[in-house]
Amino acid sequence: MNSYKSVVLIILLICFFYSYDIYADDHIDNSFSVSEGLFFDKLDLDTDFLYRNKKIYKLDIQNLVSPHVSYSKNVKGIYINAWIATNEEKVNKLIEKIGESDLNAIVVDLKETTGRITFTKGKNEKKNLFENGLKVLIDKAHKKGIYVIGRLAVFKDSNLAKSNKNYALKYVLAEDGQTIINSDNWVDPFSEDIWKYNLDIAKKAAELGLDEIQFDYVRFPTLALNSKFIIRSKKNNSKVDAIVGFLKYAKKALKEYDVLTSADVFGLTTTVKGDLSIGQDITKLINYVDYLSPMIYPSHYNSGMYGVDNPDKNPYEIIFESLEDAKEKLGDDGYKLRPWLQDFSLRHRYTNKEVKEQIKAVKDNQLSGWLLWNPRSKYTISAVKSLEKGMNKRWNIQGSELFRKR
Q: Could you give the number of structural domains in the chain?
């Protein structure tokens, strides 16, 4: 009887392992192509497996060909100003520091708020300097596994506003409702010519291998409550319509390029209802970008915000509450949040402690991506060392295979 039970048990075990092997073969697919990379935005980088359509795909993290979607989820980056980005020696030093930290991304200017296009030096400069300078920087970063984001200041463009009044934003004198005054710093967010001009720059940068285009100053200027001016709008079109229209246009224009898009927004947009009278309603903007970056700088918040007496000295609370509000607003699109954090000092001196607290607040909101802002590009590198060992692996962008062979 015991021998009979043993035989039955052996048969059952054989059947189990046979069925398990069939199940495993059916659910681990090595034919997943690079073109299907768009599914990586659901990827959990804690594991080496991707679950999609009831199948498990084994991921080769070291040999990923294109990081655009997968890597973008875990971006931990810093802003590099134009002065440093165009200085080879300084770029090399900064990239070396990045290699010693958990940072894996850089944000460089494509067009500044003056309207100056970075990597060009004047009217007589060769037309291909933009291509050469930016291309060199992108290639250098990619060789080190660094994700490159190009920041494009869109509607704040003082050169264009002054040189062509047709494109300048129009203010109306509140007193009489008729007198029109041209802005010297802002161009018209309703103008499709302005949209096209900025997208031409974005397309050129995308062709050079940029991973992501980040649209900054995608808004109207702020006006004081007692301002003498009001902003002239188009008939039947609101400020939100203008900003949404631009991002929708940008998404369509860049569709054929292997590049993601993101937008910078005011920190308060995460909490305050509406658009802050600048056209930034994140519940509508989110539909036309891959990532949204609220500029949540604790030093910019007033006393009492989120019940905090001194926001500048309590960075964790400000970042956490702001992102929590944003996630509630955005619902299923909350994963697209990638905030700008403060690594500069105003009233209160920011050190390793304050930077780490902000990063922890992001993580505690179940978000993994963030960017550090310092206008001088001087960062607290010690705050971003060994944050999550094993999580932020460098990706070999030149790799030839996407998945490991079984």
A: 1
